[in-house]
Amino acid sequence: MKKERDVEKVYSNAEFAAKLRRLADAVETGDKFEIQIAGERIYVPVRASFSVEHEREEGEEEIEFQIRWSREE
């Protein structure tokens, strides 16, 4: 079983755009998506679900693009 993890990685605009393009291509073609975040390679299966979340509090706003799936162990 993998350890719990909660990591946030900041990317340059160009790096973030490239990752979004690769994700969009994978979603559009129905392929799995691979990404490396803070040294760990993550494999996102085709069955993942996608959502967009918006939060607003104390003078700040946040949009999160979320990808969620259950691990089959």
From TrEMBL:
<dbReference type="Pfam" id="PF20068">
    <property type="entry name" value="Amphi-Trp"/>
</dbReference>
<protein>
    <recommendedName>
        <fullName>Amphi-Trp domain-containing protein</fullName>
    </recommendedName>
</protein>
<dbReference type="InterPro" id="IPR027598">
    <property type="entry name" value="Amphi-Trp_dom"/>
</dbReference>
<feature type="domain" description="Amphi-Trp">
    <location>
        <begin position="6"/>
        <end position="72"/>
    </location>
</feature>
